[in-house]
Amino acid sequence: MGHPQLDLLLDPLAPPTYNDPSVPNAWETQLLLAMHRQWQHPFLHAWMARVTWLGDPRLVGLALLLGLWWGRRRRDVVAAGLGALAALPLVEVLKEIVHRPRPVEVVPHLAPATGWSFPSGHAAAAFALAAFLSVGWPRWRGAWWTLAALVAWSRVALGVHYPSDCLAGAVIGVGMVFGAVGLCRTRDGTR
């Protein structure tokens, strides 16, 4: 009997021998590997590495602060910005609660990454920023959502997150922004 995660990866039809919610399912690991293999060309890998940088929570935090200053006269923009800023530490708290290992701990040839995997901070930050920008500057919302989706995709393509990590991060980022906007509008009596 070997390592349960590697056993599951090598034989995805075998029943799991553990019940740990922090360990991804075999299908998710297979999906991760398939997406990762698509981006093995050096040019594509380099492009994904640059795209993923757009979701760096520090960069997103700075962009949010600038956006808050720019749109400070609109209550919905301020609420969206505060919701987006609140999403960033929430993700870090959830990582410490869930303790899901990075994909490299299951599949050793993947890119090294530090910290816990679930949820993806880059995906949460990118989607929170996209939601914030969609509230403040809706004319460009297609571009905002496309960039956020590319950031989430890049995290899986680079092999540093599972797809569900990015999906959860996206839900948290969007949920915090639109939740804050909804609370602001309910309080103001507008819809």
Provide a concise account of the structure shown.
The protein has 191 residues and is an all-alpha fold. It has one domain: Vanadium-containing Chloroperoxidase, domain 2, CATH 1.10.606. It is 68% helix and 0% strand.
Structure description:
The chain has 191 residues and is mainly alpha-helical. It has a single domain, classed as Vanadium-containing Chloroperoxidase, domain 2, CATH 1.10.606.20. The chain is built from eight helices and no strands. Helix 3 packs across helix 7, helix 4 runs antiparallel to helix 5 and helix 5 packs antiparallel against helix 6. It is elongated, with a radius of gyration of 18 Å.
How many DSSP helices? 8
The total domain count is 1
Uncertain spans, ≥5 residues at pLDDT below 50?
1-20
Q: What share of the residues does DSSP label as strand, in percent?
A: under 5%
- CATH first level: Mainly Alpha
The secondary structure category is mainly alpha
CATH topology value: Vanadium-containing Chloroperoxidase, domain 2
Number of strands: 0
What is the chain-wise order of helices and strands?
Answer: HHHHHHHH
Report the span from N to C terminus. 58 Å
Q: Outline the biggest β-sheet.
A: none
CATH architecture: Orthogonal Bundle
